[in-house]
Amino acid sequence: MLSKLLEKEINDQINYEFWSAQLYLSMSAHFADLGLPGFAHWMYIQYQEETTHAVKFFNYVIERGGKVQVQPIQEVSTVWDSILSVFKETMEHEQKVTTRINHLADTAVAEKDHATQSMLRWFIDEQVEEEANVKAIVDTLKLVKDNGYGIYALDKELATRVFIDNTQTGINA
Ligand SMILES: [Fe+2]
Ligand SMILES: [Fe+2]
User: Fold this and answer.
1) What ranges in the chain are assigned the alpha helix state H?
2) d(CA 30, ligand 1 centre) in Å
3) What's the CATH fold of domain 4-71+79-162?
4) What pLDDT digit, counting tens, does each position of 69-80 carry?
5) Among 12, 26, 36, 50, which is 20 to 30 Å from 74 by CA?
6) Could you tell me the distance, in angstroms and rounded to a whole number, from the CA of residue 81 to the centre of ligand 2?
């Protein structure tokens, strides 16, 4: 059985993962509007991934005999002033998620909940991947700046990303 504190904190994280999904869906729409289908596609996969994260926590709470409280999703941004600013916001967002996952792990340790610590391992590893993937794109954007061909080439590259539900495979990538 989950402690009341962990039940509450994981419920908050379910909402936060859905909020992340909304944020990335909004970024995807923004890129589609700019005529950058590869960037839009990459963000759409982010949206799909965040949804699987929310569902992984959702199933875990139920499995441990807790109650999921589905909460309203806060509003997300819809406008950005550059491609780089979208990815800088993405990087800051993922760093914030990492801090939240670490806090959850601290609570699980304090509550002596070994099963939750084990479940959170997957998310801890996932965040390493998330931050590294976004950093690589930020670095490339800094390199190409406003070069049209550079943006075009990156758009083509991001279009090749394939969605894999890592919560099912158990492998973080
Ligand atoms: Fe996530
Ligand atoms: Fe994420």
Assistant:
1) 4-34, 37-63, 83-110, 114-144, 148-158, 166-169
2) 20
3) Ferritin (1.20.1260)
4) 999 999 999 999
5) 36
6) 22
User: For residue 98, how far is its CA from the centre of ligand 2 (angstroms)?
Assistant: 9
Domain ranges of the chain: 4-71+79-162
Query: Rounded mean pLDDT of the chain?
Result: 97
pLDDT digits (tens, 9 = 90+) for 58-99: 999 999 999 999 999 999 999 999 999 999 999 999 999 999
CA of 99 to the centre of ligand 2 (A): 12
Q: How far apart are CA 75 and CA 42, in angstroms?
A: 21
Res. 155: pLDDT tops 70:
yes
